[in-house]
Amino acid sequence: METRVALIGIVVENLDSVERLNSLLHNYGQYIIGRMGIPYEKKGVSIISVAVDAPQDAINALTGKLGAIDGVTAKTIYSKLGESK
Questions:
Q1: C or N: which end of the chain has fewer Cβ atoms within 10 Å?
Q2: Are 79 and 58 a contacting pair, CB within 8 Å?
Q3: Parallel, antiparallel, or unpaired: how do β-strands 72-78 and 45-54 relate?
Q4: What are the pLDDT tens digits along the chain (85 aa)?
């Protein structure tokens, strides 16, 4: 199955949602290349970046599920690797 490399940017404004977010990321762990989280206490948010290598459908599903969590915003950017020219 063809996979794509992507970066999912996540902003967590409701820290009560972190457990659900972490559980969801754990479920997609087979696709995660790496993850970095930055707590920004001044604004009361956490910023997380997750690098993935996964089928397009899995990336879309994960991003959609993340965005459906209360107080969580998620956006994805994709590598141009594998795109037809």
A1: C
A2: no
A3: unpaired
A4: 899 999 999 999 999 999 999 999 999 999 999 999 999 999 999 999 999 999 999 999 999 999 999 999 999 999 987 555 4
The beta-strand segments (E) located in the chain are 4-12, 32-40, 45-54, 72-78
Two structure tokens written together for 85: 């020219």
In contact, 6 and 81? CB cutoff 8 Å: no
Look at the block and give the residue holding tokens 């206490």. 41
Q: Which two tokens stand for residue 21?
A: 């977010």
Question: What are the CB-based long-range contacts (under 8 Å, 24+) for 34-38?
Answer: none
